[in-house]
Amino acid sequence: MKIINVKAEHNYQVEIGVEFSSAIKQICNNHRKVLLLAPASLIKLFKIKESKNLFLLPTPNGESQKSAQFLDRIWRKAASIGLERSDAIIGFGGGATTDVAGFAAATWLRGISWYAIPTSLAGMVDAGVGGKTGINSGAGKNLIGSFYSPKKVFIDPHFLESLPKRDISAGMAEVIKCGFIADYKILNLVQEDILDYPQLISRAVKVKADVVSKDFKESKLREILNYGHTLGHAIEKDSKYKLRHGEAVSIGMVFAAELSKELSNLSEVAVLLHRELLRNFNLPLSYSRSRWNSLSVLLMQDKKVKQSRLRFIGISKIGKPVWLEDVSLSTLAKVYERISK
């Protein structure tokens, strides 16, 4: 088992290599009542049953669970079972599930304990770690939320054995992102014939843990974790979430690399490496040329926009993030042409 420590508003551990049923048992032993949120398909697949102190609430699939309507259902379920401040919520599923579980825990009784048991690769290396919780709204993705860390994160790599290839690839976008912003070794590992997922997960989690421990509430440094996400989030919403988060981020990273070449002298070799590695996992590299006007509107709703000025995270070389401030729409449109079809 690999343990990675995270420093935030409280310190917690990410345990990599723990069996999920033993994790649930451990949580139930530490709390009088536990509410587990998970997609119905996962509850059925892994034969999760209610017990004397474990209660289940099936979630909708994907991003649809990150809504005010479902959040209200969680609150009503918490009320019906008498969930108290000493009790806990578990988010068992992909990143959307851990996002809404964490936000429900942050808001129920002004804050109770919660645990993340991510079942997707993206959830393991990104959404389940770091304490960003939230839901979506008509105004945009993740605009309603809080910084509220889990009490512990349990990662069981065996979940990857039953994960569809498309979801593995989407998660690899977040892994590759960590390689480009901080850990070149990851970029070597993802090119091996047989992937060492436990090591890739550990290294990606370590990148995120190190950044979060230095800047929990994203005053500046934590923004580097959004490499590829600024355009990625806009594309994700524009696609009406038909694209997986990692698929949209893949396109966003290619764009960020091209923008870095334009504004920070990133080498052509590094730009091409983005395309090569992402293509190896059948991830999309481009988006429709006709959608630029829609995307430019969505970009202005990004959380990193300050005083109506667009800001992007780029890299000047592999492992060296840079902040691209007040980027003009004309520059963005010019660079978008390179990744549009």
Automatic annotation (TrEMBL):
Query: One cellular component GO annotation, for this chain's record?
Result: cytoplasm
Q: In which pathway does it act?
A: Metabolic intermediate biosynthesis; chorismate biosynthesis; chorismate from D-erythrose 4-phosphate and phosphoenolpyruvate: step 2/7
The UniProt entry, under Gene3D superfamilies, shows: 3.40.50.1970, Dehydroquinate synthase-like - alpha domain
- Location(s), subcellular: Cytoplasm
Name the keywords, alphabetized. Answer: Amino-acid biosynthesis, Aromatic amino acid biosynthesis, Cobalt, Cytoplasm, Lyase, Metal-binding, NAD, Nucleotide-binding, Zinc
Give every 3-dehydroquinate synthase N-terminal domain span. Answer: 59-169
EC primary class: lyase
Its EC number(s)? 4.2.3.4
- List the cofactors: Co(2+); NAD(+)
Domain 3-dehydroquinate synthase C-terminal: start-end pairs = 171-305
Gene Ontology biological process terms from the UniProt entry: amino acid biosynthetic process; aromatic amino acid family biosynthetic process; chorismate biosynthetic process
Please name the GO terms that the record assigns under molecular function. 3-dehydroquinate synthase activity; metal ion binding; nucleotide binding
Per the record, what are the reactions this protein catalyses?
7-phospho-2-dehydro-3-deoxy-D-arabino-heptonate = 3-dehydroquinate + phosphate
The entry's family comment says:
Belongs to the sugar phosphate cyclases superfamily. Dehydroquinate synthase family.
Q: What is this protein called?
A: 3-dehydroquinate synthase
